[in-house]
Amino acid sequence: MKELLSSAGRLVRQFPRTHLLLSMVLLGGVILIALSPDSPPEQPRQQAKTISLPAKPARKPEPQPQAPQAPEWQILTVQAGDSLSSLLQPLGVGAGQVFALINSDDKLQRLTKIRPGETLQVTVDNDNRLTQVQYHPSKVETLTARLRGGGWETRLSQREYQKQTRFAEADITDSLFLAGAAAGISDKLTMQLANLFAWDVDFVLDIRRGDRFRIIYEELYLDGEKVGEGDILMAEFWNQDRHLTAFRYETRSGDVEYLDIKGDSMRKEFIRTPVAFSRISSRFNLSRKHPVLNRIRAHKGIDYAAPSGTPIKAAGDGKVIFAGVKGGYGNVIILKHGQIYTTLYAHMRGFARGIRVGKRVKQSQTIGYVGASGLATGPHLHYEFRINGSHRNPLTVPLPKARGINDNERSEFLIAANRLKAQMTLFAEASTLASSDVL
Ligand SMILES: [Zn+2]
């Protein structure tokens, strides 16, 4: 992942120079097609609200079209510097009520994060008691609270985006990001694509002229207006002689996974490089001359030079079996992953908060920070990978795949994957037709 991020950085930096030219070159080869262009269904709109003006309004309440029956809603617009208390004070609502409200439910903590320009709808009874609150923490969320028998009844509802499936394809002539931009997809989506294949493709070193990709993905709409891109549903990548395919699948337990056609995970059990924005300063070498000791001593790991304090990530899910000082290694963490794998991280400046022996860590979780503790000429991570106790070259050791689909869910996955495949084929055919029309 870190390799990828730094690669992405490099790619993005190349972007401005060649963007225009490349867009022009690729223009003919890139097609973007919308599937099922039916207009998205009507969304449930908010109920119209009545408004009653406070005697001496401190804010400008916004007029509402209709005035049906009680309760009378008041619309408050948040100004710079407002808190919930200052917003409600002109309506006679005391700080005690506000305090009771926001502390009655975790969801209502959102009310402490109101931002200028947002609006809040409230009802206040004749005794200056706040009785209802409605707030939209985001475009799709509605938070409502109602005073009922002295307590607050809270609800957070979420509108569904309308989704449309889209198709994009591109030949890669320079970088993945240029190709993505030429195909009309956002950097965010290109990054998603890169992440999908990051375990198999180094997007700086492995890309060759003639490589190409195609994807189907979701576009998100609210009230008929495009608000962003959702997930890639299926991606194909032709890299040199390889053809890689990934399918998005939501498991029965609700986890989203990207799987290949066999149902194996696209991810590996280990990330290759546990520190981002680094360069290799010393390779795995069993007859290296040690830079400090100045004599031949095997270098049984990889050194990644990086600024002091750069986060070091756990290469895989595992358990901390050592966290402390170990001679020339300085501050060291050793992780055990399953039965046969261990990884070691040396010369750390310090450990991440909560890291201690026995602690479980997740892949890519920060476990510590690059430093120069122990025998080191400068800040770097010394990283070792062992199988059954014997050192292996972290750069070349074959990495096991992360667990894929559960056996009892395999047939469901295959049905979903084949449906996506058929959709991709349809899109690709339409795209070919469209481009031959142009020619
Ligand atoms: Zn080293």
TrEMBL record:
Cellular localisation: Cell envelope
Keywords assigned: Hydrolase, Membrane, Metal-binding, Metalloprotease, Protease, Transmembrane, Transmembrane helix, Zinc
Domain of life: Bacteria
Pfam families named in the record: Csd3_N2, NMB0315_dom_I, Peptidase_M23
Coiled coil spans: none
Annotated ranges, domain LysM: 74-122
Main location: other
Cofactor(s) for this UniProt protein: Zn(2+)
Classification via PROSITE patterns: LYSM
Entry keyword Protease: yes
Transmembrane segments: 20-37
Location of the region described as Disordered in the Swiss-Prot/TrEMBL record: 38-69
Identification of the protein by name: M24/M37 family peptidase
Species, as recorded: Alcanivorax jadensis T9
